[in-house]
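Hi R.,

Here's the input for the F0G complex you asked about:
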Amino acid sequence: MSLSLSAEKPAVPDDADDGVWLECIECGETFPPFEDVRYTCDECDGLLEVRYTDLPTFDDFEGEGVWRYADALPLSEGVTTQEGATPLYEVPRLEESVGVEALRIKHEGMNPTGSFKDRGMTVGVAVAKELGVDRLACASTGNTSAALAAYGSRGGMETLVLLPAGKVAAGKIAQASLHGARILEVDGNFDACLDIVQELAAGGEAYLLNSLNPFRLEGQKTIGLEILEGFLADYDAVPDRIVLPVGNAGNTSALYKAFRELVQAGELAESEVPKLTGVQAEGAAPMVEAIENGADEVRRWDDVETRATAIRIGNPVNAPKALPGIRETGGTAISVTDEEITDAQRDLAGEGIGVEPASAASVAGLRKLRTEGIVGDDERVACLTTGHLLKDPDAAAAAGNDPEPVPADTEGVLEHLRS
Ligand code: F0G
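And here is the predicted structure with F0G in place:
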């Protein structure tokens, strides 16, 4: 069973609670949403999705931010710090140099903790409360831990984060630390951290809030809904393509789900669905490998390396949801070098938009796809930038201008400026 774009509405099982249930994407088994803690299918261990009896149309949305889309979410309110409603920036110089009909930057770095993770956590932490758990946990390349720590503390819950030692950017550790998470630095990479935290969660030690958790992805769907509403308002049409960085492929899965639900609600024709286009760093590109090889499964990469530490991931757990998302929408996946990522980070900074390296991968990937002729010059494109520049101050300083020492008098400063 593969997730396809279809106008057919799902049959409602007895497990539905107020029109919401969990369904396995592999075997179709259904489960009540809030009775017990589960992350994958009891029968076949497949990934779960949240399903709904009533799918909303654009007219049903009101208010601002993630909870504007409450009718598309499993709960009507969350543990919130006013996440979402991020800018969809125009970038005229970049648009021209890349050479597309329209280019907009959806800057998720403008969320409360500086990344898109807040959208997932406002929903995921609320579900954790509904389930009555008291300890939350995640593995993280940094941003998930920052968001979990913030939303966990806002919800009055204990948080535990497992981070790959020496591979997390400074801003992210600072956030997890001050928001009061217990930080376990693991002598291994992100994928090893995720293996461990999944085992801890399975043993009932904590509630897992990685993107394997189907409720978190519901919050992240709102990125897609906001982009579509923004394009409809400005161009009277949805974008032809959405380009995004890929790590665990949670966003790719979430955006695809948002589009499938709009098709089922009759709001979007199958032919209109934006082409989901994933970008990975060359040193951590298992999804790209699978797309290029036409493979049904993603091969786990044990050795991964990239300056874009947020996407230094070799085992994208949401691949079974994301591969059909890329293929069914007519999208693709591409890898870029660290140098291309840094160049794109500078290009965005030159338009006044400060992003962390992983975020710039989207723009680097778009540029490469234009050069290769895979993206046409007539396309209207949204690039997702997932995290704020200040998340990784060291990468920003290395990519930017060096400070120039000057003496402490005006004459000396003027002399320096003239030299
Ligand atoms: N961009 C940033 C800035 C990220 O932090 C992440 C993932 C991604 C892109 C990839 O998104 O997993 O949905 O494909 N960061 C996770 C973390 C792994 O722990 O913060 P994805």
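One thing worth noting: The two ends are 68 Å apart (CA to CA).

Cheers,
M.
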